[in-house]
Amino acid sequence: MKVNHKYEFVGGIVGEMDSKMAQLKIRKQMRQRLGRFRIGPLGLLICISTFFLVSCASLLPPERRMYPKNPISLPKGMDIHDWMDTKKKQFPNHLQSDSPYAAVYKIVFFRKEKTFLGSYISCSAYLRQTKGNTIEIVEMASMINYSDYTKSLSRFNKGGDLGPMSEKERTEVLLPCIEEFLEPPPTRN
């Protein structure tokens, strides 16, 4: 049997050209698809400036996130644990707390008042017993939460704006939230 090498060579070249044409066709299709997502110089400038604005935003320094009326006297005969039990009974659906250390509590308190859009306003802080029956409130933060506060505050339940990032947020959002938490329980007559 005689093999014609000339035709095999030409057939190989044609096959290679077909595969190259297919690759070029695929590249052209990809460019067309990606062409819809091209960002011009103005779009790139907007993306970069948004990134820097968002990443440069920060909370107020720790000394501005301490409660201004520290230390707070607890009711007579109560330590921090008794007082927190009273607060849990006072705000059963609006207070979440954890005690990571012996005389320290981490709290998250959800205000009764909501934003005009219906979002929940919450604040968090560390409460630590200092001397006798006094506590300090430190590391305060506020959050306007767009999700349901009855769900746990885990890493999967995000969706809010953390603050305070300005003195205005501190006085209009954070401090009223802490003040509401500190309200004494209603007296029973």
Write a brief caption for the model.
This protein is an alpha+beta fold and 189 residues long. The chain has helices at residues 5-35, 41-56, 80-90, 167-182, and strands at residues 72-73, 95-101, 104-114, 120-129, 134-145, 160-163. The mean pLDDT is 77.
Describe this structure in words.
The chain has 189 residues and is an alpha+beta fold. It contains four helices and six strands. It has helices spanning 5-35, 41-56, 80-90, 167-182; strands spanning 72-73, 95-101, 104-114, 120-129, 134-145, 160-163. Strands 1, 2, 3, 4, 5 and 6 form a six-stranded antiparallel sheet that branches.
Unreliable stretches (pLDDT < 50, length at least 5) are none
- Give the radius of gyration: 31 Å
Pattern of helices and strands: HHEHEEEEEH
Bin the strand percentage: 15-25%
Shape: elongated
Specify the helix fraction band.
25-40%
Q: What is the average per-residue confidence, as pLDDT, rounded to a whole number?
A: 77
So how many helices?
A: 4
Largest sheet: 6 strands, antiparallel
